[in-house]
Each structure stands twice: as structure tokens, then as C-alpha cells.
Design brief:
The protein is α+β, with helices and mostly antiparallel strands. The protein has helices spanning 24-38, 52-57, 59-68, 91-97, 102-119; strands at 4-8, 43-47, 75-78, 81-85. It has 5 helices and 4 strands; from the N terminus they run βαβααββαα. It is globular. The termini are far apart. 46% of the residues lie in helices and 16% in strands. A 4-stranded mixed sheet has the order 2-1-3-4. The protein has a single domain, classed as Glutaredoxin (3-Layer(aba) Sandwich), CATH 3.40.30.10. It comes from Acetobacterium fimetarium. This is Arsenite efflux transporter metallochaperone ArsD.
Length: 121
Amino acid sequence: MSKVEIFDPAMCCSTGVCGPGVDPELLRVSAMLNVLEGEGKKILRHGLSEDPMAFVASKVVNDLIANEGVDVLPVTLVDGEVKKTKGYPSNTELATWAGLTEEELVKLVVKAQMATIIDNK
């Protein structure tokens, strides 16, 4: 299993449900990461507003921002290597980096959704 780190731009929250509008991309990413973390996968998410020292501590991310500016965010590292910039990873990318097939990830998402439905009854 690879270590996946996502470095978010400055924002009020990472879920996408705050502010004047809901960001469906942030909702998707948050849901996928919650499912993967629930399965014990090593996924870290750093927000520029909440965790600026993570950006300073990562030479790779620090260099990217110094050379390209904050528009390079979000940045995804897998085992310390840049895999994606200027956008969030797809579900397929997340599944691959977590050592899963896309089908396995879909099953985990459905399982999590069913648990939520049951818990809310």
C-alpha cells in the first residue's frame, strides 16, 4: 500500500459543504478518502489554511509552489512522488494508489453508503 498525500489549496473546509455553494468535486474526494481511511489505507490530506507546516516540510510541494505558485494546488503525492497537480485524483487513481481495483473501491463505497443509511434509521 502506497502512502497518498493530498495538499489542498487554502479553503474554509475540505468537505465542500461550507461557503456559498457546495463543491461536488470536494464532496467526491472527501467521500472517497473517508472510505479508504475506513479500510485502513494510508491517506493524508493537508490544507494550506489548516496545516501550513506540512507544505513547508514537503520539499517537493514547497518547490512546486515556489516555482508555479499556489495555482499548482491541489497536489497529490504517492510515496513522496508527484502524481497529480492542479486537480484532485480520480476514483480510479485513488483505487490504484490504495492497492485496490476500481470494482473493490465501488464495493467499499456502497458498503459505506449502506452503513450510513442504516445508521440514520
